[in-house]
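Hey, quick one: can you model this chain's 3D structure?
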Amino acid sequence: GDHRDLHSLRRRQRQMCIRDSYNIESYIFTLRLGSPHMYRKMTLILILVVFLSDSIFCSTKSITFDLSENLGIRQIRKWTFMVYLDGDNDLESSALDDFTEMADVGSTSDVAIIVLIDRWDGRGQPGDDNSYGDWTDARIFYVDRSETPLPENADVVLGEKNMGKAETLVEFLNYSINNYPAEHYALILWDHGGAYRGICYDFDNNNDGLEISELRLALAQIYNSTGVKINLLGIDACLAGIIDIVYSCRDYVDIIVFSQEYEEGEGWPYDCLLYTSDAADDGESVDLGGRRII
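Sure thing. Here's the predicted structure for all 294 residues.
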């Protein structure tokens, strides 16, 4: 009997100690993850133990906040506009000019502009351009508004790459899709074109070009690994408008835009393409599936 009384006394002492030492509040947090396109929520119950005197009490509070920026969660944009900008040849100056045209608009919450640009080590040959630091390797840029193609502005330095290889295109597409997911994807292949001989010639790699079979291989690898089908393929190169390219890309591309004729060396007017006619004042980007591009 004395043993049971002692046990009960000690239990009451422990209860009093706990009651006098802790004040527990239960908070329910609702976490909104991602952008407005990612309406996923989680509920986390967090028990905070606060050392206070007086008696134990419990209360519940609801707090909602956005963690998309703090946790680095990638938002889902409407479009990711991927530009395979092969300036590793005598079109280097035009490549840099088109980069700045894209930067005149810049990425927005709806459209991410991602550019892989490879420059030429022309060493003073005709067409060589030594502006913007005269760097000569391949770099990936997330293009902000008014950004310049200076080497320090690049998000990823790839080193020298052969733009005429399927592996380089696959690497760029994987990076863009994984880091800038979107509802729709546009891919622009920019450079010289040679009809059935292919596109994207790399002077620093023995003038190697991306053959039509290599283009199909790259698109197939991306589809098989990510499930992504290119919604809009634009080929900003001369003589690309041939049935061979259409047939080769048919399984992995929805819409192709190209030219059967020779193009101007300056390429497409990207500042115009990325703006709607009525949005120049407010900076909104064009719906890339709209009539202004197609």
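One thing worth noting: Residues 14-72, 277-286, 289-294 have pLDDT under 50 and may be disordered.
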